[in-house]
Design brief:
Layout: H1 8-23, H2 33-52, H3 58-70, H4 76-94, H5 100-139, H6 141-146, H7 149-161, E1 165-170, E2 175-178, H8 180-185, H9 210-218, E3 224-232, E4 238-249, E5 255-264, H10 266-280, H11 290-301, E6 308-317, H12 319-326, H13 328-345, E7 351-357, E8 360-367, H14 370-384, E9 389-391, E10 394-396, E11 399-408, H15 414-430, E12 435-438, H16 441-462, E13 466-475, E14 481-492, E15 496-498, H17 500-510, H18 513-534, E16 545-550, H19 552-556, H20 560-571, E17 578-583, H21 592-604, E18 607-613, E19 630-633, H22 648-663, E20 667-670, H23 676-684, E21 689-690, H24 701-713
Parallel strand pairs: 11-12, 14-16, 16-17, 17-18, 18-19, 19-20, 20-21
Antiparallel strand pairs: 1-2, 1-5, 3-4, 4-5, 6-8, 6-11, 7-8, 9-10, 13-14, 13-21, 14-15
Helix pairs in contact: 1-2, 1-4, 2-3, 2-5, 3-5, 4-5, 5-10, 12-13, 15-16, 16-17, 18-20
């Protein structure tokens, strides 16, 4: 077994070797196989660059396909073998392991572009050859008329050796001569071609003007014409050609023969049909994709008076959980089964189902009575999802949320209809899912309000509309205040004070969480410095620490470490004054690249807290590799301790977590402490610090001053 290549260039070289070995046997070239590999090497490099490029460039892949023609890879098997190699090995040897799904999708698109470039270059080469042959044939008109031996020999060489089909018929349409290439196009049977009349070759798909042009030519009214024409082969299949028919005149200029030049375009036509299908259908499920759906929707909305439409926008409930827990392969199997069930729900005329992407599907119905039909369609879809789907030995219960939009044609654009359906679908999901909701203009308005908050976020930070409240962290052993958690708020000019749940998801979605998080971090660190200066020497518990939340977007931002270092140095606060809180869900399945910034911060002395611990699906053994020093236990584990006696199950769970954490040298902080009994029980179980309304609600920094002074004097 050979060793894997050492680097990107080695892997790319291996891909070029495999490619050359596959294509060389069907290539008309005088080069040796190693020399042919060197000819393919720059093409392999271009494919590798196109695969990893920031944005997809179809022109680059088309150029590679065209270059294969220049390399004499004109055998039909050369393209098939090339596409097989690209499909099987390009992502394997040249792809980014962190973006496999994106790489596979881009590889597929590269194959399509290569095939298109190959077909275009082959057609241009064939047309050039056809033009040359046509010119030679026209020059040979005098030869046919004068029957000169030497000229006829030259014409015969061109006639027999041409790669395109050539046939000569008299003006009555009787076929007189055909070359071997034309015989091969018709299956190699001379009886199927020689002696037949041109008029017998009609086909149902002939363009209306085809035979009109033919009649004008044999009457001498035109010299030539060019059409795309289909012929019936003896085996029942269709032969598609680019057909050029020219009039041959005698020495006196009178029409005498007709010359037909045929280029076989059957394979190219099938390829174009395949590419069109793939461009308008989802590769995973085979359903129409977004492109084809919008074409149909636009046609439905542009229908005449009296026509209506109904649209069901479906999003699967909990699909991300299935992907995260069972993997994307299981998720793909689930989507295929869902697509099959949806397809069976929309079989009536005027109905269609499409996949927009991810776990989002749409069903469209058209006609004069869609008010009733669209409700029935939505009910059929929900009913179709009732039966569990069996995947890899597991029965998965699938539910969906549907937004329904119905109305007369001609009043709204496709984008407006889909936006309303999307908003309505999320309203159904917010109501618990597994249901459908009808579009409501008022609900649409609320969604637009959320959009308004999103657009107002950037200027809100510039105008200083954000402020921070602090909730104290209390040591359960002696009751002293050890620090506080910083919680950001938005004082909106129209909507008043907004909690983080109203705007943090919007900030994460737009990327504004990074500058907002940087501002929160700097303001909080400045407050921590002020507390340390104010309470220096007043508490035996040591200086106060500030806890700041990190969103997953901030964690993935490449400037996290440098921003933190700059802020600490600029404010003049030691790293041990800061604790960064990261939710457990953000670190599920985290790789070393994601953990590297946290490790660097931990090595500097910044504490890392695992927030909402116990709400995710992470393996407890993963704690050993995470650079955390604090576990923040989710409030759901301690709610059973608010009353006496406490829930024994909760006690055992918390006791086990505290024991595990302390064995790993991790401190335990508890959120949501609301009663004295709860606080006492947590102290007995060995928890280190706590926060909650029992101690204080989040408030301005002055309130923490008062609590800290009271703690220092008690």
């Amino acid at each position: 077994m050979t060793a894997e290549p050492d680097g990107p260039e080695d892997r790319l070289r291996r891909f070029a070797t495999i490619w050359s070995r596959a294509v060389f046997p069907v290539t008309s070239t005088s080069l040796t196989r190693p020399e042919f590999e060197e000819q393919l090497w720059p093409l392999a490099c271009r494919l590798g660059d196109a695969l990893l490029a920031h944005s997809f460039d179809a022109e680059e892949a088309r150029a590679v396909g065209a270059a294969l023609i220049d390399a004499h890879c004109t055998d039909p098997d050369a393209l098939a073998r090339t596409l097989d190699c690209v499909d099987a090995y390009l992502v394997l040897y040249c792809g980014d392991e962190g973006r496999l799904d994106e790489m596979r999708m881009r590889s597929s698109r590269l194959q399509h572009a290569m095939a298109a470039g190959y077909a275009r270059a082959l057609r241009e080469r064939t047309l050039a050859e056809q033009e040359a042959i046509g010119q030679a044939a026209l020059r040979a008109q005098g030869v046919v008329a004068q029957a000169l031996h030497a000229s006829e020999a030259r014409f015969r060489a061109v006639f027999e050796g041409a790669a395109i089909g050539i046939g000569i018929a008299d003006l009555d349409g009787q076929v007189l001569q055909v070359n071997e290439a034309l015989l091969r196009m018709f299956g190699g049977s001379e009886q199927a071609v020689r002696g037949r009349n041109v008029m017998e070759w009609t086909h149902p798909e002939d363009a209306p003007q085809t035979w009109k042009l033919y009649e004008e030519l044999v009457r001498g009214e035109r010299e030539h014409y060019h059409v795309e024409k289909a012929f019936n082969r003896p085996d029942g299949t269709a032969l598609w050609t680019n057909l050029t028919v020219s009039l041959l005149r005698d020495a006196d200029g009178d029409p005498q023969y007709q010359l037909a030049l045929m280029e076989d375009t059957t394979e190219r036509r099938l390829l174009n049909l395949r590419l069109r299908y793939e461009a308008t259908h989802d590769a995973l499920t085979g359903l129409p994709n977004r492109t084809l759906f919008f074409e149909r929707l636009e046609k439905a909305l542009g229908a005449g008076d009296g026509q209506r439409f109904g649209l069901c926008y479906l999003d699967l409930d909990g699909f991300k959980t299935i992907n995260d827990s069972l993997g994307h392969a299981a998720g793909d199997q689930l989507l295929v089964e869902v697509a099959d069930r949806l397809q069976s729900c929309a079989t009536a005329p005027g109905e269609m189902v499409a996949r927009l992407g991810g776990d989002e599907f749409v069903a469209l119905t058209t006609g004069p009575d869609t008010e009733r039909e669209v409700d029935e369609l939505a009910e059929r879809i929900l009913h179709a999802l009732v039966t569990p789907i069996r995947i890899d030995g597991r029965e998965l219960l699938v539910r969906g949320s549907i937004g329904v939009v119905e109305g007369p044609a001609g009043e709204r654009t496709p984008a407006e209809v889909l936006r309303s359906a999307d908003i309505t679908m999320y309203r159904a999901k917010s109501a618990g899912g597994n249901r459908f909701e009808l579009a409501d203009p008022e609900a649409d308005a609320r969604a637009i309000t959320r959009h308004g908050l999103t657009t107002a976020l950037p200027t809100a930070l510039e105008r200083g509309e954000f402020f921070i409240e602090y909730q104290p962290l209390v040591h359960l052993g002696d009751g002293s205040i050890r620090g506080a958690e910083a919680l950001v708020r938005w004082l909106h000019p129209q909507h008043g004070v907004l909690g983080p749940d109203r705007f943090i998801p919007l900030a994460e979605h737009t990327g504004l969480i990074v500058p907002l998080g940087r501002w929160v971090l700097e303001e909080s660190v400045r407050q921590a410095r002020e507390w340390r200066e104010r309470y220096a020497g007043r508490s035996a518990a040591g200086p106060m620490r500030i806890n700041v939340n990190l969103s997953p977007c901030q964690l993935a931002h490449r400037g996290l470490v440098q921003d933190t270092v700059d802020i600490l140095e600029r404010v003049g606060v030691a790293p041990d004054s800061l604790c960064l809180e990261v939710t457990e869900s953000a670190l599920i399945g985290a790789d070393d690249d994601l953990l590297k910034p946290l490790r660097r911060l931990a090595e500097m002395g910044v504490d890392i807290a695992l927030d909402d611990f116990g709400t995710g699906y992470s393996n407890l053994a993963n704690l050993r590799r995470l650079p955390v020093s604090v576990l923040k236990l989710d409030r759901s584990f301690t709610q059973g301790m608010q009353q006496f006696p406490a829930d024994p199950v909760d006690l055992k769970i918390v006791e086990g977590i505290v024991s595990l954490a302390h064995s790993l040298d991790l401190a335990v902080t508890v959120e949501g402490v609301e009663t004295a009994a709860q606080a006492e029980q947590l102290r007995i179980l060995g928890c280190d610090t706590a926060q909650g309304w029992y101690y204080a609600r989040p408030g301005p920094p002055e309130r923490l001053h008062e609590l800290a002074l009271a703690d220092a004097t008690s």
